[in-house]
Amino acid sequence: MDTVIQSLGLTVAYGSQRAIDNVTVSFPERQITAIIGPSGCGKSTLLRSLCRLVELTDGVEIWGRVIFDSEDIYAPGVDVTDVRKRIGLLAQRPYPLPMSIYENVAYGPRIYGIRQRSALDELVEKELQAAGLWEEVRHRLNEPASALSIGQQQRLCLARGLAVEPEVLLCDEVTSSLDPLSTQRIESRLIELKQQYSIILVTHVLRQARHLADYVVFMYMGELIEHGPSEEFFANPKHEKTRAYLAGEFY
Amino acid sequence: MRHRWIRIEETLMLFLMRASLLVVLGSLVFILATILIKGLPALNLAMLTQIPRGGYYLGKEGGILNAITGSLALAGGATAISFCLALAVAIYLHNFCSSERWASVLRLALDVLWGIPSIVYGAFGFTVMLFIGLRASLLGGIVALVLLELPIMARTMDEVMNLVPSGLKEASHAVGATRLETAFKVVVRQTLPGLITALLLGFGRGIGDAASVLFTAGYTDRLPSSLFRPVASLPLAVFFQLGTPVADVRARAYASALILTGMILVISLLTRYFSRWGMRNVIR
Ligand SMILES: Nc1ncnc2c1ncn2[C@@H]1O[C@H](COP(=O)(O)OP(=O)(O)O)[C@@H](O)[C@H]1O
Ligand SMILES: [Mg+2]
Q1: Looking at residues A171-182, what average pLDDT do you find?
Q2: Taking 80 as the threshold, does the pLDDT of residue B115 lie above it?
Q3: Is ligand 1 within 6 A of the CB of residue A41?
Q4: What does the alpha-carbon distance between residue B238 and residue B244 come to, in Å, rounded to a whole number?
Q5: Predicted TM-score of the model (pTM)
Q6: Would you call A98 and B281 a contact, using CB atoms and an 8 Å cutoff?
Q7: B101 near A CB under 8 A
Q8: Nearest ligand, CA of residue A43?
Q9: Mutating which of B94, B164, B168, B175 best tests the A interface, going by the most A Cβ atoms within 10 A?
């Protein structure tokens, strides 16, 4: 099992409060890793620090290293936009950009210098297909993205993220605001996408973790408690906190 | 017992609200009625299409095309410049200013500038112009109006940018956009209706202000021809015509006020239209 991204002693604090404390963990390549744990335990913080989005928050402090492609993404001199391009993040609440459906998907590629209309057309279709949205929007590509339903918006955000061809896809409770059908659609896309991408998925739905994950990371109160291959993790949890959590003793 | 008090309270509040509404609507109707009744008889095509002829201010022929075009040049130029500067200030405040304290100092400065009476801008502009040897001119007037409009526009833009959800900016950063790309491609589009409103507020203040252009732009009976020549303006046209003893000319003052009001109305309607058009992409 190859490692795609690895955190070493990663600690993130908002002001004086540590949201994650000394987290060292390796995420496997081209698999789905689920980060689980009760709400407020630092799952989102961990995810957002893996792509350097966490530093956009005011007053945040970060220690430790994150190794990606054998380099520390927090090392001085690293191009942060390049990190964010290669490690994509899909947020909990879908935020389409204030432009058309087409422009949303073309947003990233345009930034990276793709100007040719035919190339963009092709890319937009391909990524909307990959996100499972193409059939629904193919005749209304020029309509504002704000007109889509929330489930469609989340898939549009997925397409937008895929369009810059990231290597890692971080998903932060991406189905928590969606209806069951939309959830199912996103889940089936993720399973398909793991052929090409390494996916790290935050979820507090255990069923989803069981269903999707190859590898599971369990966090509690900002600390990494236990991690391991999915089957082993669920069949044979070692830590008592994990057992209690899996038994539904706290959420 | 309590029930009755609530009823009385509610009736009283409702009465107060209706009274305030009446004051607002009443004064608007009153002002419009005044300029319509006094100005409409004096309004004719010549007013809109001619410059003052000899003896205009004694009641002879001519119009105020000089003031209409002058005002458009002054307010148009100043609004265009202020818009760019204000946008830069607002974007800086929201996307590049890393220190909250510095940002609040800037906001306070803008609020103070907003409150400064326009005659002070006029006097200040005039002093600077004397110092650098510039006569009363279109350029001088534009500079004074920029000072007047900038704080209004910058603070209005600042307020609408405050409402941009951080998740939206983050969505742009997440695909690797820089702060500048995020500001111009996402924040500007998201706040477009608000930016257009800021444009209107600035323009409205600029075109209606007499004091700041009194010394800086001067007055002339000619059409604007150069940045370095004086220009006329509608508020001053109203002022000068209203100050004559000739009744016909005073009626023309009201007609000029009517023209100014009409122009502001047109601009407001245009703004509404474009604002609504800008709304369609906005993410809520
Ligand atoms: N922007 C923020 N400012 C201050 N504290 C925050 C911020 N975001 C998260 N936190 C705190 O950090 C801790 C971890 O939050 P988070 O990473 O969002 O947890 P999770 O995603 O597991 O629910 C929580 O205690 C939360 O209150
Ligand atoms: Mg979270």
Answers
A1: 91
A2: yes
A3: yes
A4: 11
A5: 0.89
A6: yes
A7: no
A8: 1
A9: B175
